[in-house]
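Appendix B. One record, verbatim.
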Amino acid sequence: MKPAKKHVLLAVAALAIVALGFGGFSLIKAQQERAEYAKFRPLPTGPVGDGIEAIRDDFVNMYVLRDGNHLALIDAGVSAESVGRELRQANIDPAAVEHIFLTHAHYDHIGALVLFKNARIHIARPELAKLGDKEKAGFPVAPTPFDDGEHLQLGNSTIQALIVPGHTPGSTAYLFNGKTLFTGDTLALENDHVTPFNERFNLDTALQRESLSKLARLQGITRIATAHYGTSTDYSTAFKGWAP
């Protein structure tokens, strides 16, 4: 075999090995992510108590908050099509939503923002600072940033924004009227006990643990509402062992 031809064949073989290796790695990564998604246990669309409704979009929950005729959402799901369908089932008009409070800007929490033409979108300042062009393209209007501890309003109701980094730089938990804590992807619930969220999807799980200790110091909470792991009405038991 001529040396030039031999070199070409060796190069082709090397490329094939690299391609097979990359393909195998991608397959393993996809399988691992599917295993993590299989752990999620979102609630079905419907009331969860305290006048709050869950909206299920595939593997994630968003939530509807009410104060009289005023409507707000915690997060905005994966898909405009499926969220629209679930909202119709719950007799909720997207045009009536006044505010959307984002726990963070991953695709499964901002996917249906385009449905809500009249809503102001709220997001933590550190999260907004890290948004890429792809995420920004999903926002129908420029979002309104807030800082840690800021109090936001829905009619006569108060929503306190608590920035709890770890899953993302500006992950946020929202405390509704001092009673219901919406945690997004800041935690998981396992047998009604708080654990860090799936580490595979976290930016910094060690930092998230510090954020969980911050939440454990809250008082008077009657309900935890997560994005992927349902709810709990026993705050003290759920956060047992997390307070510093």
